[in-house]
Amino acid sequence: MTAAWQQQVSLKPYNTFGIDVRARYFTQAHDDEQARQALAEAAERQVPVLVIGGGSNLLLTRDIDALVLHMASRGRRLLSDDGERVVVEAEAGEPWHPFVQWTLAQGLSGLENLSLIPGTVGAAPMQNVGAYGVEIKDVFAGLTALDRETGELRDFTLQECAFGYRDSLFKRNPGRWLILRVRFALDRTLRAHLDYGPVRQRLTEQGVGQPTAQAISDAICSIRREKLPDPAELGNAGSFFKNPVVTVELADKIRSAYPTVVAYPQAGGQVKLAAGWLIEQAGWKGHRDGDAGVHRLQSLVLVNYGQASGAQMYALAQKIQADILERFGVELEMEPNLY
Ligand code: FAD
Ligand code: NAP
């Protein structure tokens, strides 16, 4: 059945920054058919469409003069199992973290390092979500999307998604593909990734010698709860800037002026700098412009203390970008999707 369109709907409950803008039209899709019908009706009425999931990677700077289509489809299943490798599939509207917990409860590993990321399964491929040394591309087994130009269904392989650091074919072609469901190839035997950040140390503190996937997930959840603001309490969209990848020459130049710079050599001879370190070094940690601020513990996270508008958040972000460019010669790229 077609879901009705509502008009002039506040998007405050639908974005984790808690920005209060209005959607001209709003509807939800609980299955493929509702998604398809919403797109068809919008095309007929010549109304643009903005697809959203959990709204945890959005910065809404104005009222949205479009149909906002909220993906609310549910369902997760085991597709195949050869005793070692198991392919699972989930619908786009499934909340990500409960899906990860469900895979762990099935005795499957592969997604544990991606625990407690907000948002939905359908948005995860958009920026190839990643944390603690794992990205979804590492366990990705395919997805099904609707081509918004032709209305055709299409299956994508790993190669076809062209995943990169916080990047994908879908992110580079906004508005072309509506992701309907995503598949992951998971393992019955754990291949642990513990060498990133404080994960191993936290497990040691917890007295865990031979961790299970669930123990790794629990450790990562405890680290994240300490470091990151909960959007339910303080509006934010997680990391606001990508970590810049720069030339060795630029990294060396910065290191000669700032010997403690946090830098990680990358394949291909470049160097990834921790954007949070640059922002903190420049004195922005805890800074506030009215209700738009930089988190007091994690300078990569911009926060809305209550009534900030998206435009105010964006203005603060631009000030930080200009300052980091002037001080370090480094361009910071925004991570959330700007509307
Ligand atoms: P939304 O914000 O709703 O949408 C994001 C983009 O995807 C938009 O452009 C939207 O149009 C598009 N989109 C949404 N659903 C679909 C669909 N079904 N088909 C096509 N396009 C779609 N990200 C990480 O990578 N790693 C982290 O560790 C991480 N930690 C975070 C911690 C916090 C506290 C917060 C608030 C955010 C964090 N994020 C992280 C960012 C964010 O949670 C992820 O990018 C997440 O995948 C976004 O999902 P969403 O459903 O909220 O997407
Ligand atoms: P952190 O552990 O304090 O590390 C700071 C930065 O250094 C991170 O951005 C990370 O890069 C990088 N880093 C750490 N160890 C590394 C290693 N061994 N090799 C290469 N790079 C390394 O970071 P954090 O802010 O608490 O976040 C922890 C993890 O969760 C990170 O992977 C981060 O990306 C992810 N996260 C993402 C978001 C988001 O919205 N995108 C929000 C919160 C947390 P990377 O970011 O490239 O991993």
Automatic annotation (TrEMBL):
Q: GO molecular function, one example? A: UDP-N-acetylmuramate dehydrogenase activity
Q: Where is the FAD-binding PCMH-type domain?
A: 18-189
Q: What is its main location?
A: cytoplasm
Q: Where is the active site?
A: 166, 239 (proton donor), 335
Tell me the keywords, alphabetical order: Cell cycle, Cell division, Cell shape, Cell wall biogenesis/degradation, Cytoplasm, FAD, Flavoprotein, NADP, Oxidoreductase, Peptidoglycan synthesis
Instruction: Cite the annotated pathway.
Output: Cell wall biogenesis; peptidoglycan biosynthesis
Cofactor(s) listed in the protein's UniProt record: FAD
Q: What EC number(s) has UniProt assigned to this enzyme?
A: 1.3.1.98
Q: Which reactions is this enzyme annotated as catalysing?
A: UDP-N-acetyl-alpha-D-muramate + NADP(+) = UDP-N-acetyl-3-O-(1-carboxyvinyl)-alpha-D-glucosamine + NADPH + H(+)
Supply the InterPro entries for this chain: FAD-bd_PCMH, FAD-bd_PCMH-like_sf, FAD-bd_PCMH_sub1, FAD-bd_PCMH_sub2, MurB, MurB_C, MurB_C_sf, Oxid_FAD_bind_N
Ranges in coiled-coil conformation: none
- NCBIfam families on file: murB, PRK00046.1, PRK13903.1
Q: Which family does it belong to?
A: Belongs to the MurB family.
Q: What is this protein called?
A: UDP-N-acetylenolpyruvoylglucosamine reductase
Q: Which organism is it from?
A: Pseudomonas oryziphila
